[in-house]
Design brief:
alpha+beta, 4-stranded antiparallel sheet, 3-stranded antiparallel sheet, globular
Length: 97
């Protein structure tokens, strides 16, 4: 991914306490999400590193926005949060209005 491919105004994070480990997110957007050995989903950096710190965020690549949005909508654990970076308002996920 290059800087041009990212939508810096949106970021995504996963609440692992609610993650059910179904892996739907990794099926929709494997470039953004990955299941770890603990069976839970995590976001990945633009460099493909698994980000395991609690509340870790990663930019949403513009070309994957629909897949990330669908991941949030279909997640059985309601644990995927997509928010605007500028004001931290959730636009997709369980806390979206």
């Amino acid at each position: 991914m290059t800087a041009q491919d990212e939508a810096p105004e949106l970021e995504v994070w996963i609440d692992q306490e609610l993650c059910t480990g179904d892996g739907i997110c990794a099926q929709y957007a494997p470039e953004v999400f990955e299941l770890d050995i603990d069976g839970l989903a995590y976001v990945k950096s633009a460099e493909d590193e698994l980000l395991q710190d609690k509340g870790a965020t990663t930019p949403v690549p513009l070309k994957l926005l629909a897949d990330v949005r669908d991941s949030a909508k279909e997640c059985p654990g309601d644990c995927i949060h997509v928010r605007r970076v500028s004001d931290r308002v959730e636009v997709y996920g369980p806390d979206a209005e």
